[in-house]
Amino acid sequence: MSSLGPTFGRGAMTNSWTDIRNTDLAVVMGGNAAEAHPCGFKWVTEAKANRGARLIVIDPRYTRTASVADHYVPIRQGSDIAFLLGVIRYCMENNKVQWEYVKNFTNAALVVKDGFTYQDGLFTGYDPEKRQYDKSTWDYEIGPDGFAVVDMTLQNPRCVWNLLKEHVAIYTPEMVERICGVPKDKFLKAAGWMAETSAPDKAMTSMYALGWTQHSKGSQNIRTMAMVQLILGNIGIRGGGMNALRGHSNIQGLTDMGLMSELIPGYLNMPSDKDVDLKTYLSTRQYKPLRPNQISYWSNYPKFIVSHLKALFGDAATAQNDWAYDYIPKLDKPMYDVLQTFELMHQGKVTGYFCQGFNPLLAFPNRAKITQSLANLKWLVTMDPLDTETSRFWENHGVYNDVDTASIQTEVIQLPTTCFAEEEGSLTNSGRWLQWHWPAGTPPGEAKHDNWIMGGIFTRLRALYQKEGGAFPDPILNLTWDYKDPHEPKPVELAKEYSGKALADLHDPTDKTKVLVQAGKQLLNFSQLRDDGTTSCGCWIYSGAFNEAGNNMARRDNTDGDGLGTYAGWAWSWPVNRRIIYNRASCDMQGKPWDPTRKIVEWDGTKWAGGDVPDITPTAKPGEVMPFIMNAEGTARLFARGLMKEGPFPVHYEPFESPIPANPIAPKIRGNPAARVFADDVKQFATSDEFPYAATSYRLTEHFHYWTKHNRVNAVLQPEFFVEISEELAKEKGIELGSWVRVWSKRGSVKAKAVVTKRIRPLICDGKTVHVVGIPLHWGFTGVARKGWGPNSLTPFVGDANSQTPEFKAFLVNIEPTSAPGG
Asked: Going by DSSP bridges, is the β-strand pair 126-127/132-133 parallel, antiparallel, or unpaired?
């Protein structure tokens, strides 16, 4: 999220699970922690029991999390930004601002360029044909000293604070009620509780998950709450933070390790075809400080990327060839995310697909399009421990997968893999903890470790290039592959590789006679990385996970040294075992903790010290160097500059399929104006005239995604596909509890059992009654559970403008009574 820095664009906890025990107020919005993260949710219950903390739950459904909340607020899905901008307005209007924090630790005082404006839902520079912005005015005024102009009095009408105040003025409690369907009194109660944490001795934590990310403006959902937290002074403190609750055991590790088309491990950027050489690539990534004395830690980017290239290509990466920079692919599009890839597949431009640990037929939007795309392939390889719907997309399963098998010519190769309980390695949890684990069982049948499969594919592929050559075989032939068994690299070998080592003796820059690290030894952490080819590191943020002290991820010391939930000896947390990111912000301008009872670090007169690793140079003086060291300003950003696709401030945009006729604040704009939309998919966006009900997807405690329908115990606990509707909608449509209903959208149709419940209530939005339809996602046509469908049969093929995460949480459907499937 660009409010805090580039590292958190994909979601991670700024704090840890165990730190939630220190909060005074937990706000669960965009998630359902009690059901989807039951083990982690215990820290909320500890905060309630031991600190008297309160819990606010803001959700379209009255969930199990809501059932233990002190205040439940119903809200229409897709309207979170309006609610949160209303909270910001409330804080400004009622002087509930942590002023010392805001003035010094955010960019509130920085002056924005003349020419930047906002009107009717759009910022300066919008091109409707391209659905893109010219962002040249989305920046600061630069003074004659080369630094951003600042007005610490906040009197300049062009300073960020005043522009934000003007921007949020429209989001009155009445407007929030109109857009969100939230009763005014419930909004004001929630806003009041949140605003109370602007006091330096109070803390609020934000807990969110896919309920925020799976929207066409999902990144801005998160950023808006980050802005709330910054205004309240709740980032970098115990019991505070922005805490993304990741859904899979290693989805955090997936993004950390760069398994996204536009990323390199450690949240480095994949070059584009405009980055013709390393110098050009680095010219836009070494951010020069925008304020005096600031660190701008991305100035170390050359060390990170050169060390990464050395890890990839070893001796073949030299200064003479730009450290083998030319070996890295260059993007000709911003990214090749799943939507882009399946669009190309649908067009017949992608003809082969490796599918490792995914089930796109149930996990990607508009299932009919996904089915046709897979049918266009020449070959499909699936790597999975289970028999997935994707592997069997070509089989006819009656109404549950009604395909013409004979017409599908895709060759499908299933490679059975192991599951997590049969493997050794590290898993990275939501709190950035890398925890090593060991196998608890032996793989069944022909199941093989993923490393064995990938190692075998690579060694065979390399042998073909060695024998037959190719247009440019160098990256394959020169890829470092010096594992003891090249056919199956071991997890420990890979861990050492991503943690980093010295390729030559590393001398102390201040004393050339002193060797800090001998050649061949593991690096202490990323502070020892060099850009001269003498260090190798696969993932700079993981550097230190496995150093000369050993495998730090395997540590299991559960001593709580400060009694505040740090547990510094348990496993290892990136970066450098730091448990709370930006923790220097937990202290005032003199370096003293805002709340001495929840001290993390403090300035002792010569250095920063405390119960956590300081997130700042240890000797950086508190009045000079600001806490947000990843940002060139040294501060967090209320104004995001040009780092967000749809604008430097968040705006309420309706979902592409909205249950109300128009966006109340920008009636001419449909959806997110900067979201990428493919031409054929526009035709399948519905209106509320034909599809009047607002649907959303969710998960159940009794199931885990699409895995546990293969387990009889889970299948018994939740045996059958259902949808949830309110008593009012059931009465209106003549639907009885337990009866069969048909739910359909402009893209597909499903049948389900109806659960008629008080947990969902109609909302009044812009004068219209809005009924919510809840659709869980755990059923398909493989496994031991009864056959069913997932919500992706109904969802639109469009994603967030920044991350391209599909909009699964807000779409339109219709519903009617029907007979049983096949009946």
From this structure: antiparallel
Instruction: Give the count of beta carbons closer than 10 Å to the beta carbon of residue 207.
Output: 30
Q: How far apart are CA 664 and CA 709, in angstroms?
A: 42
Return the minimum-mean-pLDDT range out of 281-290, 531-540, 755-764.
281-290
Instruction: Report yes or no: 156 and 164 within 8 Å, Cβ to Cβ.
Output: no
The one-character DSSP state at 373 is: H
* CB burial readout 300-333, b (16+ within 10 A) else e: bbbbbbbbbbbbbbbebbeeeebbbbebbeebee
Task: Name the residue with tokens 């469009």.
Answer: 798
What's the pLDDT score for residue 7? 38
pLDDT at 491: 97
Among all chains, which residue has been given the structure tokens 């009900």?
693
Q: Peptide bond preceding 575: is omega within 30 degrees of 0, i.e. cis?
A: yes
Q: Which residues contact 783 (CB under 8 A, 6 or more apart)?
A: 386, 387, 706, 709, 710, 715
Residue 551 forms beta bridges with which residues?
A: 546
Strand partners, 773: 695
Q: From residue 25, give the alpha-carbon distance in Å to each of 208, 618, 710, 724.
A: 14, 31, 39, 30
pLDDT at 5: 47
Q: How confident is the model at residue 247 (pLDDT cuts 50, 70, 90)?
A: confident
Q: What is the pTM of this model?
A: 0.97
Kindly tell me if the per-residue pLDDT of 4 is higher than 70.
no
For 634, the token pair is 């040294």
* Least confident segment among 518-527, 637-646, 702-711: 702-711
> End-to-end CA distance of the chain, in Å?
49
Tell me how far apart the alpha carbons of residues 123 and 137 are, in angstroms, rounded to a whole number. 9
Separation CA 720–CA 778 (nearest Å): 9
Q: Kindly state the greatest CA–CA separation across the chain.
A: 85
3-state helix, strand, coil in the chain (%, to 5): 30, 20, 50
* Alpha helices (H) in 42-126, listed in sequence order: 42-51, 80-93, 99-105
Cβ atoms of residues 587 and 601 within 8 Å? yes
